[in-house]
Design a protein that fits this description.
The two termini are 45 Å apart. The radius of gyration is 33 Å and the shape is globular. By secondary structure, it is an alpha/beta fold. It has two domains: 106 residues, no CATH class; 240 residues, Glycerol-3-phosphate (1)-acyltransferase, CATH 3.40.1130.10. Helix 8 packs across helix 10. The protein contains ten helices and 15 strands. Strand 11, helix 6 and strand 12 form a beta-alpha-beta unit. The strands form five sheets. It has a six-stranded mixed sheet. Strands 3-5-6 form a three-stranded antiparallel sheet. Strands 1-7 form a two-stranded antiparallel sheet.
Length: 359
């Protein structure tokens, strides 16, 4: 670490508020007792001297030509040395503000870090604002229809709630249509709407939910409990029958699995993101076996789907922007079986192959 001074006329100063009758030799004894010593180049040793004519509150003077002096702590029990910082010594000898401490990190920033946003970045931010504005306005009006129909849905269609999912499909289409196009491939692989199944897909972006809702299938998502607190959106999710989950809560996980099993027995479908979270780099993560265990126990097919492009339009962790692009959904052939591990590997291989094929 390098210590430099702004001033070209004044030497580096270590200020001490103790009485002036303290000599340099006593300070050297103090440093040696604490394990402190000064280190400089062999050719230019630092000179410690005491002067009554120095600047106010100044005790030690290191000439300007001897900058680069560093404090080191040497332990007799170790063969190496590491930097040592003495809080008590620092409090007694506070350095003036014109001293700058600079390390190797001083020049580690990128050259473009301080540059203003480009027109393309500003365009993405503006599109993001309009995207959420359209989504909020559409959700407000459609939520009223959902709220009025909710008592009848509970009475006539308590488990599948087709009307609520129709409203959700309209909301998703109204929101995404002005901003990007969704291409569907493999629609013939979808089971009939009333056939219970376990749907899975990779998870790249916040837009994945919008994209999946446009399919118009009445599968029940599993979502974090905090999402249900969002006005209108969270309330609509509750009425749709979305399954709440508290992360890192074993009891909540068991309850969500039990509820999934009950819904499947009643003829409804469920949806899982086997990765558990959104991918930060676009690469496919490891799959958890929970969804496949449910499918194997309930003896229903697994419908793997690959989402392509959502992570580029709205990357994970950058939900405030909306880039230009298109989205593709590939619906693979159903997977059936009784071994969750085999089903998990087969589903992941299909999704990974589709992602690699699309580049």
């Amino acid at each position: 670490m390098e210590i430099a001074s702004y001033s070209s006329h004044s030497p580096l100063r270590l200020c001490d508020k103790r009485p002036r009758n303290l000599c340099a030799s006593s300070l050297l004894r103090l440093c040696s007792s604490k394990g402190l010593c000064t280190v400089s180049s062999p050719s230019k040793q630092a000179i410690l001297r005491y002067s009554y004519n120095s600047a106010q509150n100044s005790l030690l003077h290191f000439p300007r030509k001897h900058v680069g002096v560093s404090w080191q702590f040497f332990s007799r029990n170790k063969k190496f040395s590491c930097p040592y910082y003495d809080d008590k010594f620092h409090n007694r000898n506070k350095m003036p503000r014109h001293v700058v401490v600079r390390s190797e990190l001083a020049e580690s920033g990128t050259t473009g870090a301080a540059y203003p946003l480009t027109e393309l970045q500003w365009g993405s931010k503006v599109r993001g604002i309009f995207f959420y504005a359209v989504s909020a306005i559409a959700a407000t009006f459609l939520f009223v229809l959902m709220l009025v129909a909710h008592p009848f849905v509970l009475l006539l269609d308590r488990y599948q709630r087709r009307f609520h999912h129709l409203i959700a499909k309209i909301w998703a289409k109204v929101t995404v249509t002005p901003f990007f196009i969704i291409e569907l491939e493999g629609l013939e692989n979808l089971p009939l709407p009333d056939t219970p199944a376990v749907y899975i897909s990779n998870h790249q972006s916040f837009l994945d939910i919008y994209t999946l809702l446009t399919l118009g299938r009445g599968f029940k998502f599993i979502s974090k409990t905090g999402i249900f607190l969002i006005p209108i959106i969270g309330w609509a999710m509750l009425m749709m029958g979305v399954i709440p989950l508290k992360r890192m809560d074993r009891r909540s996980q068991l309850e969500s699995v039990k509820r999934c099993m009950d819904l499947i027995k009643k003829g409804a479908s469920v949806f899982f993101f086997p990765e558990g979270t959104r991918s930060k780099d676009g690469k496919l993560g490891n799959f958890k076996k929970g969804a496949f265990s449910i499918a194997a126990k309930a003896r229903v097919p697994v419908i793997p789907m690959t989402l392509i492009g959502t992570g580029k339009i709205m990357p994970a962790g950058m939900e405030g922007i909306l880039n230009m692009g298109s989205v593709k959904v590939i619906i693979h052939k159903p997977i059936e079986g009784s071994d969750p591990e085999v089903m998990c590997n087969e589903a992941r291989n299909k999704i990974a192959l589709a992602l690699n094929h699309q580049g």
